[in-house]
Amino acid sequence: MCGRYCIDDESNILEMNEIIREANERFKETSKLSAMKTGEIFPADIVPVIRAAGSYRYVDLMQWGYPRWNSSGVIINARAETVLEKPMFKGSFESMRCIIPTTGFFEWKHENGKVKKDKYLLRLNDNPMLYLAGLYNTYKDNEGKPYNSFVILTTNANDSVRPIHNRMPVILTDEKKDIWLHDKTLSQLLLNDDNNAELELITKK
Predict the structure, then answer these.
(1) Residues identified as active-site
(2) Fewer CB within 10 Å of terminal CB in the chain, N or C?
(3) Does the 4-204 domain belong in CATH 3.90.1680.10?
(4) Domain parsing of the chain, residue ranges
């Protein structure tokens, strides 16, 4: 599961600063830009997301979470193992795959099916950036205006995450980012790919 993540815009994180700069330029003087969040990201926040445009990729602003039609709240994750079986996600996988840029994600320790108070920030040992696989779709708000929302794909936890939780986001290494955005056939293989990223766990209060 991935219930929160972070976008740090410190001056030394050049990739994230470039993503935020592109969002600022593309959405200058719009309500989307004024709603964009950084820092600790919560469900339903508006954040930068990378999507495809032909053979290229660009930064868009989207809301985290597909709307629930029969209740309040949003659906923020999709299980990689069953994404091709679920009508809500299958269409998105066909042509609306995206990448969520982060500087880490948060998790709480689980024991015997119960959530503990222990909060951790998980990030790569050797890189301040962490890219997650996602899907998006277009919906309409209460006024009939279209907007894009995304979900984060999750998979079985690897050795780094398993001590605190049995699920984790699908992490995209540099060589897998373009595959995920542009190649549907190879992207299916990534759904079952080993998540071998070595993550460090930082205790948070």
Answers:
(1) 2, 107
(2) C
(3) yes
(4) 4-204
